[in-house]
Structures are given as structure tokens and as C-alpha cells.
Amino acid sequence: MGRSDASRNDDIEAAVGDALGQIAGASTLEDLRAVSAGLTGKKGRLARLKAALGGIADIEERKTLGMLVNEALATVTGAVAARENELVRTSLAARVAAERIDVTEIAVGAAGSERRGRLHLVTQATERLEDVFIGLGFRIAEGPEVESDFYNFEALNMPPSHPARSMWDTLFVETDPPGSVVLRTHTSPVQIRVMQEWPPPIYAVMPGRVFRRDTPDATHMPVFHQIEGLVIDRGITFADLAGTIEAFTKAFFGSDFTSRLRPSYFPFTEPSAEFDIRRPDGSWIELGGCGMVHPHVLQAGGLDPDEWSGFAFGFGIDRMAKERHGVADLREMYSNDIRFLGQFP
Amino acid sequence: MRVLLSILREMADLPDDPDRISGALNSLGLAVDSVVVSGESVAGVVTARILRTEKHPDAAKVTRCWVDAGDGVERHVWCGATNMGPGDIVPLATVGTVMPDGREIARRAIMGIDSEGMLCSGSELGLSTDSAGLLVMDPSTPIGRDPLVVLGIEREVVFEIDLTRNRPDCWGHAGVARDLAAHFSVAYRGPTLDDVPNGPPRSAPVTIVAGDRCAMFSAWTISGVVVGPSPARLVRRLELLGMRSINNVVDASNLSMLETNQPNHAYDAEVVEAFCVRLARPGETITTLDGQERTLHADDLLICDAVADTPVGLAGVMGDLTSEITASTTTLNLEIAWFDPDGVRFTAQRHGLRTEASIRFERGVDHNGHRDAARRFMVILRESCPDAVLHSAESVVTTDHLPAPTVIGVDADRVSALLGSSLDAPSIEALLSPIGFNCRTEGDTVHVVVPSWRPDCAMWVDIAEEVARHHGYERIGRTTPKSGAHGRLSTFQMRRRTARQVLCGLGLDEAMPSPFLAPGDLARAGLDESGTLRLANPLVAEESVLRTSLRPGMLAAAVRNASHRAERIALFEIGHVYPRGAGSLPDEAEWLCAITVGGGVEIAIRQWSVLSGALGVGAMLDQARVPDGLHPGRSASLTRGKTTIGHVGEIDPGVLHGIGLTGPVSCLECNLSVLLAEDPKPVQAATVNRLPSSDLDLAFIVPDEVTAGAIHRALRQAGGASLVSCVLFDSFRGVSIGEGFRSLAFRLRLQGSASTLDDKSLAVIRDACIAAAVRLGAQIRS
């Protein structure tokens, strides 16, 4: 190895040394990019040394020096990458430190009081009831809230001026002739509509809004909600009614609740019953009415009572919500006060 | 309806156990509302003589009494009553007595002076409702004894029964006793009817003119009557049953009615010698026993004095004042009749006069019960009037309108099939016979004669109910229908639930305002009030209009919440509206309404975008159709073709001003009945286009009369299949743009479907889009 070799070696070492110094001196990513471009670019010292290799006659010497230059370039590139990593880490750490906020400030501010809207308690109760009945094989039927006398009374075995009509305090719509249109006093008219429209067998529940001419108080509203059930099939029995009420009781209230039927009277069912639910503590809740669909009602629905039989049952929805959530006064449930509505997820 | 256990037990050997009777009544469908025990001896209460009384100068409301309870100890008692004086015998509750209402009598001091007990009123001993003063007894009453024993007062148990309409017979004790006797498998005797001597033939003639309204009228002449007070036992029974004692004749009339369910009326035979039953004449009046003069209606049925042809009673409702029994009455003509139930009901309704008689006639009384009722009247009357005689040759007139006996052929298999309980013909007969349904079995068929006191039974199912009641509902099994039915929500119902969830997700609470509005509510909300339906009999005028829009109710809810300074008022409702329809029923439809206080139209549009996206429905936004009651410049109709299916926008500032809300208030409304009418078809998947796309920004100067929607539509059309999205990202006005114009900048994303769009294709689309906008009057900004 001649002197000129040694001098070239020194040049390479000096260039590397200088480059590493510049790289270490770059304090930002922008600096580093500029430094890196100068060192590894075509006009950099190492590039120039590489270009000068062509002038060396001795192949072995050229080879050796070439390897040295390439090694030097690799060292510089590696140092750039390492420095870049370091600078990115530092800058991210600085950013993270700078971005620190008091998260609880947000939590106690407007964002923290954002909330999802709430379904009305009556909707919640209705959906829970619907879901239980769907599980028992029922579909959901609906009907108009303003009804003709026919559907609300006559088809339900209460011909005009039938005394049982006074069992409900009816709100009438101003019509000519007067009294022919009512706000439905129960969901039972939907029974008739379903019988007329759905081919039997029918397994349906009919939730909806009903109306009575009642002055509002803690337990009564002129506008409230009922759910009605109707089963029409061949060979349906009173025992099927009792069993279905029991199945509903267990499914909706819990397996430690039971039910009983007591004789009662409704014009549209015969035999008729009230049904009560027994709580695990032994106390009873009077829930609603039920019975075997009266042959006249089947006929009004277009069904032959000799072929089809069925049962119906009905009870209030509002009371379910009231008791589940311990609402003291039904009027509060209809106050539309957000402070009330917002309580029930 | 109240019944006394003592009377029931006179009619059948029923258990003397209020709990068992209560349980039986409930299981028979005679729902017991309450059970009250009256006249039960209270341990510690004794008769005591008042020795002397003295007022304390500092205690105006109470009196000091010194009493002797017969045990040689003089006691001092403070007393709040004023109806007593020295020598009176009164009940004394000694210290330590537990009163029927549960309170314990303690030694209590007033003004530092102890009270050694309490002097009692009748009501405090559970005897009557009269609590006006102390129960003062006869001065000869022995002291130191149980006051109930010395008064001869027996324990009475009163059941308050909530009677259903299918049990008219139970408006009399007899009907209740008959059911209970069958339940407990004991013989039913009925009311005691013996010991009624028949006097010589004598009767009052009866003429029925209105035979369709009065199918039976019987008149019974009773002589030897001395009008006076009833025995204390009967007075107490009447009071416990909720009636007032008048005199022995009226009391016998009322008690026999309460026992037999046969309303009856006793006339002075000197005043009314013959009866005529006819409809009222125009302008005719009657002064009923309550002292009211009533102008009669042509459909009111009257009982008249046939001699004078003047009304003596409003048939089935109330007697008149002139024929009332007086102290000097000695002979009675007792009327027991059967009136058409509807006729009585309408008369009672017309005159607002609901009486014990009318309640019973309306529901239907036994048209065969008059003889027993007359005899029962005699038995009761003879307790105070032992010389009273019932004359033979009764006067009973019937007409063709008397209900015919009902005979129903009941198929045992069919009853079993209905009840789901296997009952053969003999078992059915065994259940029905004890309650008076005479049965004749022929193979599987039981021919049932319905007793005349059960007019409610008209069909085989009514008989099936009687069978079930006496078989016991609790003994019928529990099965579930063997059906292959599957339960599910309809698509409409599922999507409506989705709508609710979406709106909740957007932060709106569900409200449920009343569907009734006050007159003017719609107008105040800027809505058309014509085409509404009104209630004929609203509770209050403020709730007399059926809503045709959910908006007034939602605005009222917003105002209410704003008055409580609610921070965030965002509410929705899904409910029916009832606009007048072509027929007598309204065109009922289910609408959705969402309002957000403090939100502008952009809130409503955002809500609509999320909601319509979730439901997979669409509608055009038409600002040319300005919805009523919404801001004319900040609202639009949601349309499908020519049909408006909803509105988005802000509440009209004028409306807000009127109801006292500061705006803006956003409003989204849509008709779910239309929007969700059709079940959506399943969306077919499109392959995701993975070719590179290019964005193109175009800014236009657009005259105010050209909507962004129109430009957007034009760009979409011109862009064709390659235009995958087009969004307005900037809108501004300024001096540089000029008055009446604004700059609208759209970002278009373009993507080839088969190959990447080259510069030439992009330029073609760009030019087409610009040209389309220019055609609408826009200018491209350089």
C-alpha cells in the first residue's frame, strides 16, 4: 500500500468523521434532512471520493478503496437513520408533553353531560311486553285510535244502547249522527279488525293508546295505554287461556310469579275472568280481564263460531311502567319534563 | 252492593267465617271490595254513669266528667262531646283498651289532669257512622257491663261486593246466598216467608196501558198497619247496608228489596185505591219523593192513581210525594212490578235520578219474584206490626211482554271442549241444579231452564260460564295452545323501533304529549285549524280538539321545559294525528316529530339524513313548498313526487314569539305511515371500485334564486356514472361576489368504472359539469 493510499484512507476517515459530527449536530428533522442530503448527495465528500476512484489504475487498490467508501457511506446513512429516530422520538415526546390536558375538565363540562335520548316509559314497557309475547308466538297488530261505534261497541257484543256500554266513560267525536264515532275506550276493536283481515289461526297482541272520560289523577289518565291479546284457532279452550296467562306471567314477571283467574264479566267474552298475579311475597296484583271470545264477537269478525274458538285478554301498560319504576303519580309520566324523561335508560 | 252475613246465614247454613265467605265470593266472581265487622265487643269498654260534669276555665273544647263504672272507683275522664249530662249512661273505654281502629287508650293528661279512659261514640265502637256525639243509653241500663250486650247488638259482617253486570240477581241477598249455598254444598232456604196470615179477599184493581214497558204489575193490600219506628235490629241492618231508616213500612219495603231484589213501593190504600200504568202525557209533571218537581218525557212510564188519573210514581225509579205513607196510614197497597229494563234506564238517565230501585230494574229483576217478595215484606213488617194482615185475592196483571222462559240445549262435549275440562252431562246438571237452573239430560245434551232471576243467560256459553264458576276456575287445567304460530314484529314495527333508537342516539328524549289540543293551539303553531275533529263531550274545553299535527304538543313540551330552564331541549314523538277524513272516521296517520331548541335547520337536516339513512328511505327537499308554521326562508318540504311526506326546518319566529320561546328551534316531521308503508327490498351488494379516484373542486358564482340543491342536482347529472360524490364544501358572500349572488364551491370525486380516468376524460367531465351549472345561471369562478 503506497502513500497515496494512506492519504485516501485518511480522506475517507476525515469525511466520515465530519459527517458524523454534522449528523449529531442536526437538532431538528429539517436540519437532519438538509445535512443528510449534503453528505449522501452527488456533491458530498464521499460521493466525490467515490467518483475519484475511477482514476486509480490498480484494480486491487480501486477495489479496496471502493469497499472503504461504500462502508463509509453505509456508516453515514446508518447514523442519519439513528439520528432521525432519536429526533422523532424527542419531538413526539415533546408533542405529547405539550398536548397534556386535564381530561376531567372535559368530563365535568358540556361533553360530559351529553347523553343518549331516552325512550318514554310507556314505549319501554310496550316493547318489553311485545318482546315477551313474540317469544310466546304472538304477532303485533295495531288499529286506529278513533273508531266507529261498530268496532268499539257493536261488534263486541254491545248493540246500540246496550247497558254495558256505560262500563266505559266514552269520549265521542262530534259527528253527524252524534255518537257514531268514539275515541276507542279499549284496544278490543283491533280484535275485530284482525279477525276481518288476518286469516286464522290468529295469535296477536294489540298494544295501543286508549281513551276514557276520566279526570286525571295519580292513578287515572284520560289517555292511557293497553295491550290486548287474541288467540283464534281450532279447539282453543279456557285451559289454554289460563295456561297462556301463566306462561306470560312467568316470562314477563319471573318464574317465581304465578297467576289466577277469577270469574268476571265482559260483554265480549264468555266465560269471562279477571286475572291476578301473585308476587313471590304472596301478595296479589289485579292485572286485567280475559275470557273466551263470545260467539257473537267471532261472527262480527267474520268467523264461524262452530269452527273457531279463541280467547282474549287485556291489561294496562301504564301501570306496568308505574309499578316497575315506582312512579308515584301517572300524571308525571305524561309531563314531558326532561328531568323526568331523562331518568330511565 | 253490600250484603250482611247475618241475612245470608238466614237463607242458608253458611259458615260463620268472614274469611271463608270472602274467599268463596271472590272465586264465584262476586269480587269483595271490603269486609267490615260491626258490633264486635271491645274488651275494656263498659257502661258507666256520668256522675257530674264540670268545664275547666282554660279548656273550652273539652269537659271534665266523673263517671261510675260500677267497680266502686270514681274515674275522671276528659270528654270532647257535648251531648251528655249527669245521670246518662255512656260507654267508657278504660285505660288499656284497644279500640276497633287500633289505637290504645292511655292515661292522658290535659292541663296536668289525667284522663282515666275515654267516653265513646257509636262509631268509635264500630257500630254506625254517626260520630256526632257519645252513644247515650237509657238511664236504666246497668253499669259496668259490655254496652253491646246490654243493647242487644250482635256482631254483623258487611261485605262490599263489586257486582258485575251479568249478576242482576245478586242485587238481593238471596242471589248471593244461593251462589254461596251451592259453593259450600249446603241447602238454600231463601228468605223466611212463613207466618203470614191471609186476610179476607181484598185488592186494588190494576190497569196496564203501556204493556210493552210494564209486563207485570201486582198490587197487594195489607191492613192492620200501625206506622212507627222499626226494631233497632232492622234499623241497624238498614244502616249497615247503606240506607236510612224512615218508618217500619218504608223500612220493610227497603229491607225486602235488599233481600229479594224486588223493588216495591207501599202506597196508602186510602189515597191510591186503584192503579193504572201508562206513559206520561205532554207537559205532565210529578214531584218525586226527593221534593223535586220533574217535567215528564213522553217515554217516561208512570204509575197513576187510576181514580184521579194522576201520577203517583215514576215507574221503577221513585214514588211521588203526595202518596207517601203517613203516620195515620193503616192500610197499604203494595206495588211489586216488572218494568222494561231499558225504559227504566232511559228515564233514570233523563232525570239524573239513579235510585236503588232503578239500578235493580235496569239490570233486570225476577218477573216471578213478586209473591215471595210480598210475603217477605209482611214477615219484616210484622216484627213491628204483629197485627198486619196480607189480604188474599192479589191483583196481578201480566202482558204479552213478560219475558218467556229461556230453555237452552247445552252439549256436554261442547262445554268440555270450551273449558278444556272433561265434564259429562250429569256433572253439568249437578253444578247447575243447586243454583236454580232446572236441567233435563238427554244423552249428551242437557236441556237447561234458565231461572227467571237470571235474565243474563241467553246462550249456551252463558251456561258454560255458570258451569265453570261452580266447577271452580282454579280447577280448570292450564295448557298452552299447540300452535305452529311464530311471533315477530312486522317490518313496519321493526323500522319504527329503529327510528326511535336513531332519534335517541341523536340525543332526543321521547315525549308523549296529549293528543287533545285546545281550540287555537294549531293556529298558534301556525297550522291550519280547519279540518280538525272535535270532541262532543270533552272533559275540559282545553282538550276538545283532536290534533292534526304533533307539533303543537311538542312545542308545548318545549315551552314547559324551557320554563324550568332545561339546558338541552331535544324531544321527539311518534304518534297518531287525526285529520278529518272523507267519511266519518279521520284520516288517521302515524307521524314523527322531532324538535331541538337552539338548533337551526341544519340540525333538522342532519337528523333527517341519519334517520332516512337508517331507515333506507329517501325524499326530495323542496324549498318551494313552504310548510305552514315553519320559517319561510329556512324550511323545506320532504317530498316524493307530488306527495309531501314531511318537513324540515326551523319553527317560524312569529310562532316562537307567540309561545314565548327564543329560537332557533329546529323541526323535523315525517309521516311514518307513508314513509314505512312499503317493506324495503334487500340491497344488492356493489363491488367496491378499487381504481384510483381524482378530486375536482369547482366554485361557482350563483344567483340567490338558484338553489344549491339545483346546482348539486345538475352537477350529479352531468358527472354521470363517474361522479362518485359531490359535496358543497364552501359557501360565502362578499363584496367581491356582488349583491344577490354567493359563491358555492363543490368537491367532486371522480372515478372510472373500467379504467383510471385520464386527464382528457377528466377534462370532458369537468366541462360538462361547468356547462350544466352555467345553464342554471351560475358562473364558474376562475
Which tags fit this structure?
heterodimer; A: 345 residues; alpha+beta; 2 domains; seven-stranded mixed sheet; two-stranded antiparallel ribbon; 13 helices; 9 strands; rod-shaped; B: 782 residues; six-stranded mixed sheet; 20 helices
Notes on the protein architecture:
The complex is a heterodimer of chains A (345) and B (782). With 345 residues, chain A is an alpha+beta fold. In chain A, 45% of the residues lie in helices and 19% in strands. Chain A has helices at residues 3-25, 29-40, 45-52, 59-98, 103-107, 121-135, 149-152, 189-197, 238-253, 295-300, 318-325, 330-333, 338-341; strands at residues 139-140, 146-148, 181-183, 202-211, 223-233, 258-266, 269-278, 284-293, 309-316. In chain A, helix 3 (45-52) runs antiparallel to helix 4 (59-98) and helix 6 (121-135) crosses helix 11 (318-325). Chain A is rod-shaped, with a radius of gyration of 43 Å. By secondary structure, chain B is an alpha+beta fold. In chain B, helix 1 (5-11) crosses helix 4 (173-183). Chain B is built from 20 helices and 39 strands. Chain B starts with a strand and ends with a strand. The mean pLDDT of chain B is 93. Chain B is elongated. The chains are: A alpha+beta (345), B alpha+beta (782). Chains A and B meet through helix 6, strand 1, strand 2, strand 5 and helix 9 of A and helix 7, helix 10, helix 12, helix 13 and strand 27 of B.
